[in-house]
Structure formats: structure tokens, C-alpha cells
Design brief:
By secondary structure, this protein is α/β, with parallel strands linked by helices. Strands 8-7-6-11-9-12-10 form a seven-stranded parallel sheet, sandwiched between helices. Strands 1-4-3-5-2 form a five-stranded mixed sheet. Strand 6, helix 7 and strand 7 form a beta-alpha-beta unit. Helix 7 packs parallel to helix 12. The model has no long low-confidence stretch (mean pLDDT 90).
């Protein structure tokens, strides 16, 4: 039998993890083995469960217990299932986007970059991408457009922030990823046998359609921050500098849009 606990007061401590803990408190940098994240909506929760993530508790609108949340509740065993009426839960920021289901889960064990890229031939690399919306969109593009993995610099926004997970439509659980701890991601990738292609608006760049890129057996596509792009050192060390041909004097694309174009052209199609 599911462990269903009805909540009638928004200030109830059982709702703290969903309503009052910050992203950094959930991340728990001092004790990452105790960190958590929040998955929102039935589809996203299912993808997290499919990926082996361990649930801690569920929060569900009362009317969904026997409908769209029924299978999720059954899969989560005896974890607490907190339930409340709609007027209580709408006090949660963004609840209208969750389709009535949220799940607090333990953060999975992080793999190293070497473990993550082993056997892969096309990977995406995000350097200093700070906006969780852009991180989530890049993961969605990576999953849809045949990139094998995503590597992030240590200063990127966390892929398990709620907004990143939501924007990715749960694809952060489908695409293997890791965070690089090295000062130079390019050096790390070179040591693992990858050629690197940095996306940058430079005159010495080659077209993203260059045949040499597709011929590389192991290629990493690097995208930089929303404002400054990739670091100069990253570009200098890369094997290729590439750019997307654009019309009408448009000089650049948002990093999320650029990732979709790059992955379409260079992924394992």
C-alpha cells in the first residue's frame, strides 16, 4: 500500500523540500552524497526513474493519485506520498507547469569525464553556460540530434536544477553527462582521444559543414557562455574553430539555438 500523507497547510515542514529549500541547499555541496533534486511532471519523473534515480518522496495533487500519478506511485514503493488539494499546491512557484506531480530524488553518483565519454564518438561540451534554461535546451537538443554525451565545465549551471530539468523535458536523464574538474577541458578531451571543435565568431574559423569535421572518428563540439562565448585559451587549444553561416547580417545565435544547429550537422546522424 502506498504511504499517502495528506497536507492541508502550505507551511507544513513536509513541503520544505518542494517549497522552501533553495537549489544550493538541495545540491548540498558540503555533502553531495546527501544531495537531492526535484523532478516535475509525470513524464520527467518516469524518465528519472528509468535512469535509476532513487525517489525520496512524492508530492501529488489529490485528484491525480488514482490517475496520472498512479503508476509513478506504484514504482516508488513505500516512499512518502504527500498529497494536497489544488489550492494548497498552487502556492508552489511553477506548480501549474508540473501536471500535478513532483518527486524529490537523490542525486545520482557522478561519473568522471573519462567514464562518461568511453566508447563515444560525438560529445557536446558546455563551458561557463550559466543559464539553466540554456543548459536544459542544450540537453534536449543533444538527445534529439544524436550527441552521445554532454560534458560541462565546473562553472556551468547544474543540469539537475529544476528549470534545467523542466526545459530539457527530462532529457538530462537520457544523455550521459559529467562535470570536468580540469582547468582545461580541451587538454582533458585531447588526452581521451577527441579532436575538439570550438564554436566562435572568428575570421579564421571553418564552416560547420566542413567535411573534415564529419570525418573525425571522435569529435567534441564546444559551446561557450551566453555573453562572452568560449575562453580564448579554449579556442586557441582547439583543433578546429567553427561557425554557423548566417544571413541578413545576424552575427550570432543564442547558445541553445546554436547547439541545435551544431548537433544536427555534426551528431551521429
Amino acid at each position: 500500500m502506498p504511504n499517502i500523507i495528506e497536507i492541508t497547510d502550505f507551511s507544513s515542514k513536509e513541503l520544505d523540500v518542494y517549497a522552501r529549500l533553495t537549489e544550493n541547499q538541495l545540491l548540498n555541496r558540503e555533502h553531495p552524497e546527501e544531495g537531492m533534486f526535484i523532478a516535475e511532471s509525470p513524464k520527467v519523473v518516469e524518465r528519472a526513474l528509468d535512469a535509476g534515480c532513487e525517489p525520496v518522496s512524492i508530492l501529488v495533487e489529490k485528484k491525480h493519485i488514482e490517475t496520472q500519478a498512479k503508476e509513478i506511485i506504484a514504482r516508488c514503493g513505500d516512499v512518502p506520498v504527500f498529497t494536497a488539494e489544488f489550492d494548497v499546491l498552487t502556492q508552489l512557484t511553477g506548480f501549474m507547469l508540473t501536471r500535478g506531480v513532483l518527486c524529490a530524488m537523490k542525486r545520482p553518483r557522478m561519473k568522471s569525464v573519462a567514464e562518461t565519454v568511453e566508447g563515444k564518438s560525438r560529445i557536446a561540451v558546455l563551458e561557463n553556460v550559466m543559464n539553466p534554461t540554456n543548459v536544459g535546451a542544450a540537453f534536449r537538443s543533444a538527445a534529439a540530434l544524436n550527441m552521445d554525451a554532454v560534458i560541462l565545465s565546473n562553472s556551468c549551471s547544474d543540469p539537475l536544477y529544476r528549470r534545467a530539468i523542466r526545459v530539457s523535458m527530462g532529457n538530462v536523464f537520457l544523455v550521459p553527462w559529467a562535470i570536468s574538474k580540469e582547468d582545461s577541458i580541451v587538454d582533458e578531451l585531447h588526452s581521451l582521444g577527441f579532436k575538439t571543435a570550438s564554436m566562435a565568431l572568428r575570421n579564421d574559423s571553418v564552416s560547420i559543414k566542413d567535411d573534415r569535421l564529419k570525418a573525425e572518428p571522435k569529435l567534441a563540439v564546444l559551446l561557450g557562455s551566453e555573453g562572452d562565448g568560449l575562453k580564448a585559451e579554449t579556442i586557441k587549444k582547439s583543433d578546429y574553430v567553427i561557425k554557423i553561416p548566417m544571413s541578413n547580417n545576424v552575427d550570432s545565435l543564442n547558445v541553445a539555438a546554436a547547439s541545435a544547429v551544431a548537433f544536427w550537422e555534426l551528431g551521429n546522424n
